[in-house]
Each structure stands twice: as C-alpha cells, then as structure tokens.
Amino acid sequence: MKKIFLKDIAQELNLSKTAVSLVLNNRGDENKISKETQKRILDFAKKNNYRPNQMARGLSLGKSETIGLIVPNISDIFYAKIAHFIELKAKEFGYNVVFSSSNEDAAIEKELIYSMLNRQVDGLIIASTQENRADILKLKEANFPFVLIDRYYPDIKTNYVIVDNLGGTKNMTSHLLKNGRKKIGFISIKSELDALLQRRLGYELALSENGFEIENDHIKELDLFHYQNKMKVAIKDMVQKENGVDAIVFTTHYLAASGLRELKLLNIEVPGKVAIISFDELGAFDLVDPPITASKQPVDAMGNEAVEILVNEIDKNNSKIENERVLQTELLIRKSCGV
Amino acid sequence: MKKIFLKDIAQELNLSKTAVSLVLNNRGDENKISKETQKRILDFAKKNNYRPNQMARGLSLGKSETIGLIVPNISDIFYAKIAHFIELKAKEFGYNVVFSSSNEDAAIEKELIYSMLNRQVDGLIIASTQENRADILKLKEANFPFVLIDRYYPDIKTNYVIVDNLGGTKNMTSHLLKNGRKKIGFISIKSELDALLQRRLGYELALSENGFEIENDHIKELDLFHYQNKMKVAIKDMVQKENGVDAIVFTTHYLAASGLRELKLLNIEVPGKVAIISFDELGAFDLVDPPITASKQPVDAMGNEAVEILVNEIDKNNSKIENERVLQTELLIRKSCGV
DNA sequence: ATGAAAGCGCTAACAG
DNA sequence: CTGTTAGCGCTTTCAT
Asked: Domain of B12?
C-alpha cells in the first residue's frame, strides 16, 4: 500500500512526468510516444498499483468526474431507488455520485447546492424543494450542467425528468369511478410542490369530467412532518360521517400506508366500505392486506434519463436545447379498489 | 455567480493571501490578526459569496472532509436507511458522504475501495461482501480510518458495528417454538457471509436447546440473484409434503416478502398452516396480510455509531483501540406467528 | 518523441 | 501582525 506518485514512476523509468501522464491518460499514440515506452509505463504503473490522486487531477483539470445528487430524503424508498439507477448509469459514464438529503428544507437545499459546487461536482441532479427558484436560475445562467428530477419549476426552462402527475392521478380516480365508487376522497400533503398540485388537479379533473362535484370536505392536505398524527382525524372526518366517502386517493406511498393503518385501526373494511389507491408504491404493496392498487413511477427510467441528459450536457456545454421529459406512470391494479 | 478566489479578495482588500486564508479558517485570533482586519475579510467574503475550492483545499490539506460509504445496494431499504443516518451524523461533524454500491461483488467492492481512496476520502464505512480480506487488511496496516458495518471479518481486529445475528435468530426461532410450532423451516441466502452463518446458527441453537432435531430438509439456502425463482420450489418442498413444516424463519426481509408471496399463490394459510417470521423488515410489514413478526435492526444506531467511531479515528489516528459494537435486534411481534 | 516549466487554488512555514 | 515562498500531485503548453 505504499503510495506511488506520477513523479516516482517517471524517475524509476527515467522519463518525464509528461510522458507518463500522457500515456496514462491514453494520449500516448496521439503524442507519438513509442509503443515500447508506453508499455513500460503501463506495466510499471499496473505492477505498482499506481492510482492518481483525484484531487490533484481534478484541480488541474477543473473537473472532478463526480456528479452531485440532492434529494429530499435518501431513505425514502422512492429516492433510494432513483439513486441506485443514477449510480449505475453514472458509473457507465465514469462518474461517481455524491449525495445529500435536503430534508425538504429549502435553506438546506440551497446550502447543499453550493457545497456541491465547491466540491467541484461536474453536474447536479436535483429533486428540489421547489423553493429555490433564484438559485436554480443562477445555475442556469452560469451554464452549469444540471437536471431536475421528480420536482421541477414549471416556469423555468431547464432539463428535467418528471412524471405525468396529473395524468396518473386522473387515471387513478377514473379507475375508482369505473369501479362504481361515487364519493371519492383525496388525501395529500399540504404543499406548493407542483407534483402535488398536479395530482390534485388530476383528481379534480377526473371527477368533473365524469360529472361529479368536487367537495372540499373530501379533500385533506396534511402537514408533511405530522401526517401520521393527522391521518386518523382526516380519515374519521371523511369516512365516519353521514354521506362519507367510499374511496380515497392517496398521493404518496407513505400516505397510503399510513391511511390503511388507520382504516384498520378503525375497523373500516377495505375495499368493502372504502376503496384506496396510491400514487407510487412501497416494496410490498402487493402483499399488503388488501393488496394496494397503485400508480407505479418509472424510477429506473427517471434515473437513467437524468444521467444521460446530464452527461450530455457536461460533455458539450454548448447545446442550449433543454430536455424536458415527462414519463408515464403505470397503474398496477390490485384488490384495494374492489374487483 | 461570478467566481471569486482567495487571491481576489486579498487583492481587493490589499492584504496577503495568508491573512485572508487564516481568517477564513478561523485562525485569525491565534495569529493575532486585528479584529478589524478580520471583520473586513469576513464581510467581504460573505458579501461576495466566497466559496473555497474544495479540491484545492483538499489537495493542500491532504484531506477532503468526505467519507466514503460502500454498501451492497443503496436501493435496499435497509442500506438506504443506514445511509440516511450516516449522512445526518456525518454532516454534524462536517463531513460529506460519497456512496457506491458493490452489488455484492467482491471485485467491484475492491475497485470501489481504491477508487474512494484515490478520491482522498478521509475514511471509509463498508458493508463488505466479506471477500476482500486482503484489502481490508491493507487498509488496517496502512492505518487508514475505516469501520465495517453490518458485515465484518470475524478474524480481523477492526472497528465494526454489527448486529447480534445469532441472538436475533435464536430469539425468533424460540418465539415460534413458544407459539407451539414443532417443525420449523429456515430459508436463507446461500452465502459465506458471517451474518448469514450466524443466523443459521441461531436457528439451530434454538432448536437443539429445546430438544428438537435439525433436519436438513428443513433448511433451504437460495442463490442471491435467483431467490425469487427458487422460492416457489423451496416452499413447496418444505410445506407440501408429508410431515411438512409448520413455520418458516426467513433471514432477510426480501426473502420473507418473496416467501409470503409464494405461500399466498399456493393458497397456504399463514399463520394457520405455516407461521412465518423475518429477520429485519420492510417499511410495511405491519400492513401485510398477515402482519409479519420480525426482528428489527437498529439502523439508526448502526449509522450513528459507525460515523462516531470513524470520525474519532480520523481525528486522532493514533488510538489503536478497536471499537467492536454488537447491537441487539428487537422482536416486533405481529400476527404471522399465530397469537 | 520527449522534457522543462508553469499553473490549478489553497495552506503553511518562515521571515520580517 | 503581515507577506514571501514553497509546495500539494497532476496536466499541458511550448520548446527541443
């Protein structure tokens, strides 16, 4: 494990650092360095386990071959999966990934963005809180390569890979309607996130297009950090009253899980009395009692495309054409909406 | 977003780079730089949004304030959660985290270790494949700070934070026995991982201590990458034959999920005909039908302690005292083992 | 085909 | 109290 440097191998071989550096960076041929010399260098390097100091290399090159990933929470299975696909794809292109969680806090996110820039990441993938418009704009103006995932800023022209939230929820709501449900509730997170707004719109659109009224009593938006406490009341409010709801659309997997938990505690039959449906799903939604019908998000495609767009952007930071991708969700029909 | 450098602020303020650097690193007082000068520097830096280039800083300092995390798979909820806690704790100490997944492949893990060293991480947290003994030893000999989590090398003296695998599984098996089950099967992954070996030992110990025979027919170890295909046969083999099993211990959450899936497909009543119990759990095991009894691993403590030990090691890389932590699991009793 | 030398942005002796 | 200077390890022009 004795560390060996470029200088060392140049000395040992009686060559210049230049020659060694060139060869090690595959620029031997183009600089007409003799095959033999090249081989000597390569062999020696391999034999002695030479590994360039990436900080030095990065400093010199002005790039780090690293991409930064900022998500709300890496332990949310949804982001963990995206991170996984991002990592795989990034590796294909020779990039490493550094990640950080913003915990849905705009100030932290902002700090993270700059902290990553300091670390000289070559590009950024951000699932933003959507509350850092100014900083996103700065990135854009500075022509710094980045792509937004999952959440985007509708009014900023940039690269992004998101999901058709409106379509997905509209689909879900229609599915419930088709299954004969008449009074459909909606439980979401209180937020200005476009994704959540769109999901609500999708729900409302499905209702109105099918000639149903939108009733405010049937819509609950819970506080992100206290949704578990608020869930019981929300459910009671919707279900246990005259003219209660006979189905509920949940806008995230953890809301669906929490909601089902409460429904069970209240001994409310699912889907007998109330059908439920979830936007996105946890690992085991097919095993849950009852198996939960859900719109599955294409996490693999989201991760892959984000990296592809980003790397492309990094390589030729000339192209001003934004890549705007809206992916479709897939409705996995299970038992929680009746048969 | 115009980039500003140390040099710039020195020039603007008519000072030397030294003075500026010192002040910016909180060493102004100790170098007796006038309060006033300090204030000028600090103000100017803040006003112009000065952000040091971490690659340059790192190169100069010989450290990166980054810790590397290597896990088998970041999209496994278990590792995602650990990563989350590691990230939080690391941030407390001013460290960033770069992660990579080894995909349970020793060669990749090895590559990752060295790749991270090249990137000058200050320390490493590794959930190892347990097949890189030589490299772990090299790290140790080189006195490079690292701590093993989840998996360790029983014969190498190092820092590690693991879980009492034997105790946990013994507990699980005993629980089944206490619930009147007589023929308990065991489904695991085929592997030399100590964790898995210990889990099997725990199972066997519980049986023999309670006067039960260990029957090889009741033990199935599936191939990691094909466990889903093999599960059906394994289950059939165990359950659907004369003198079949009346309970199954699964050694991971995904095996339990997969096993339950197959049991359902085969219309085998759980826990009526077969009780099941899982080592570790997925997010929604309490909602599953039936809710699955599981040994919960203390992911928070594992992440936190790993970072604490590591940072301590980084700071004073003198102490030769190894930190060996074995954490306890917690049995969450639910319906899948009968009442 | 190869080498000398400058420079990436920052830190840190050391001298004044 | 402040500035000069020499690196950290690597890349890269520009001569030779």
From this structure: 6-60
